[in-house]
Amino acid sequence: MKFPKRYVIVLLTFICTNVCYIERVGFSIAYTVAADAIGVNQANKGMILSMFYYGYVLSQIPGGWAAQRIGGRRVLLLSFILWSLICGLIPLDPNRMTILVLSRLFVGVAQGFIFPAIHTVLAQWVPPQERSRSVSLTTSGMYLGAACGMLFFPSLVKNMGPQSVFFVEAVLGVVWSVIWLKFSSDPPRTDLPKVSMPKVASRDTIKAQAGGVVAPRTVKIPWRRIIFSLPVWAIVVNNFTFHYALYVLMNWLPTYFELGLGLSLQDMGSSKMLPYFNMFIFSNIGGAVADHLITRRILSITKTRKLLNTIGDTGWNCWCWPHWEYS
C-alpha cells in the first residue's frame, strides 16, 4: 500500500512547528540563565524576550501573501534557513543589548512567515475530511517542542553553557530544512484525494462565448467585509487570549520557577514539561473528535469549532486560576 504523500507533508509540518517551539523555549531558558548570571533586571529581560514577538506580528500578513505568491513550500524553507543562520551566528551575550534586540527581532520576522506558509501547504494537500486532525497534529508540534525544550535544555545549559542552546537550535533548523527540501513538493493532481465538484464551463468555452476574450483569474479580497465581520473578530480575540497566555508561560516560566517558587529547572525532572505535554496530547484528541463530529454530521463545522474552543479555553482558565492565586 502506497503511503500518501500528504501524510509525509503533514508529518514534516509537525516536525517544523516542533523545532520552532524548541527554539523559542530554548532561548527563554538560555537567556534567563545568562541574564541572571550578570544581574540583568527584569525590565531589560522582558524587553529582550518580547522583541521576538514584535517581529513575529509584523510578518504574519506578508507571510500569507508570500505563501500565495511563491508557494508555502519555498517560504517555509527560506524562513527556516534565515532563523537558523541567526541562531548559529549570533552570540548569546546579555551585555550586547543591541545585537540581541536585532537578532530576536529578525528571528521573529523569519518565524512569522512559517504558520501562514504551513496553512497554505495544508490547504493544498489535505482534504476537508482530514483537515481538523491534520492541523491539530501540525500545531501540536508546538507543544511537544516546548515540552522537549523544557526537558532537555536546562541540563544542556548547566553542562555546556547557554550558547550551546543556540548551536543545537541552528543544527535542528538546518537538518529540517534539508529534509524539507528533499521530501516536500507541490501537490500533483494525481496525489490529491478525489472530491466531487460541480461541473462548470471550461475556460476555452467561456473564452469562445466572450468573443475570444476572457478576464484573468484574479480574486478581489473583500477587506471591508473581513474587517467588519463579527466571526472574524471572535477568532481574533480567541487567538489573542490563548496565545497571550501561552507566550507569557513560555517566556516567563523559567523565571517563575527560579524566583517565584525557588525551584531549579535542572532539579525538577520531567514535571516542568507537563503543561506542554498535556497540550500536545489533548490538541490531537480535539482534532480527532472534531473530524468525527463533522464527518458523521453530528454537529456542523461551526458548532464543532465553537464547542471545542469553549472546552479548551475553559479548561485552560481552570488550570491557570489556582496557579495565579498560589503565586
TrEMBL record:
Probable anion transporter. It comes from Urochloa decumbens. Keywords: Membrane, Transmembrane, Transmembrane helix. This is Major facilitator superfamily (MFS) profile domain-containing protein. The keyword Transmembrane helix applies. SUPFAM superfamilies: MFS general substrate transporter (SSF103473). Belongs to the major facilitator superfamily. Sodium/anion cotransporter (TC 2.A.1.14) family. Residues 9-327 form the Major facilitator superfamily (MFS) profile domain. The keyword Repressor does not apply. It is found in: Membrane. It is a multi-pass membrane protein. The chain crosses the membrane at residues 51-68, 75-92, 98-122, 134-153, 165-183, 226-253, 273-294. One of its GO terms (cellular component) is membrane.
